[in-house]
Write a structure and sequence with these properties.
mainly alpha, elongated, 217 residues, three-stranded antiparallel β-sheet, 11 helices
Amino acid sequence: MSIKAEILSTLKHEILTLNLKPGTILSETSLSEQYQISRTPLRDVLKQLALESYTDIYPKKGNIVSFIDLESVEQITYLRSTLEKEILKDLSATLTLTGVHELRDILEKQKETIAGESDMDAFLALDDSFHRALYRLAGREFLWNLIQQSNVHYLRYRRLHMLEKQKLEGIWKEHQSILELLVHKDTERIGPLIHHHLREDIHSLDFQHNYSEYLKR
């Protein structure tokens, strides 16, 4: 991996994990000193971050970590809920026993994560693993990969949304319910459950109040 690719990956991770909070100024001087890299390749990195919505460029301020755009989050959750309703209905007719075991293994690991120290990164990775497996088992992994390309606002929203342990438990229980509906081919209840699972809290006033400093105005 080139030094530019390494720095780009590191900064993306710092932004997605909120170690670099929305509104943080990314100083070329500071970054150049931190990573021991000249300004020219560093500007290429910053340009790529802006192209992928990790940062915004403001006159006189420079590169700023982008604020979370709830409109973008709403569009992603709408897209995912619409897709996943149909994907799961298709999958209910084709899900194999091997696929059931794979999904149950993921959920067991999620349960262990919650019971332990609630490692947020581990839980989020398993959340992605569960949904990605659903897409893959339905033959729709291309769509999952496509969605991940425009996910920076949603991923940060999701991290904030899951800070409470009871939220993690609720998400795990809904995952369990999704799997049971698939196993029993109960397609009528899949749609409402997916809608609730992905979109229930998107317009939460509590969320907007508690994290207003992170949100795009």
